[in-house]
Amino acid sequence: MSSEFDKTYMGQLRKLVGNQRLIIPGVRAVITDDKDHILLIHRKDSGRWGMPAGAMELGESVLDALKREVMEETGLTVVAATPIGIYSHSRYSFQYPNGDKVQSFALVFRVDEWDGELAGETDETLEAGFFPLDDLPDLHEVYAETLEDLKNYNGKFIVK
Known about the structure:
By secondary structure, the protein is an alpha+beta fold. It has a domain at about 25-85 and about 110-130: Nucleoside Triphosphate Pyrophosphohydrolase (Alpha-Beta Complex), CATH 3.90.79. About 20% of the residues lie in helices and about 35% in strands. The chain has three helices and nine strands; from the N terminus they run αββββαββββαβ. It has helices at about 10-15, 60-75, 140-150, and strands spanning about 20-30, 40-45, 50, 55, 75-85, 95, 100-115, 125-130, 160. The relative contact order is 0.23.
């Protein structure tokens, strides 16, 4: 019996290449509430806190991937979003607990408008919530760096 992961693009690649490092195109969502608190999720795969994010699937645009990942991880619907940066440096390489190695190639979107009710737990998250920027849980480094970059964001596309 195959898992849901086995049916994904990355799951299919992993069957061919094993755990070796892959460049995986993906998306990351910066979502805030009316108090400018940032939405974070407690991920099941790594046990770490971060932003809603994930890999693109074959046949998807980056906007389709953003909408799907946000829905899967939070229950929210992305209505409007603006790309604000890309993070692709090799220092954004990491290893999942199962041994799979990746180098991220993430397009970061500011979600300008969203709708729906925030889900507490999903298939991919242990919990989700909005946090003030001065009181964040322990974040994976790339998400902490993204939030630091946002503090200085001046409208110029971030390239790292």
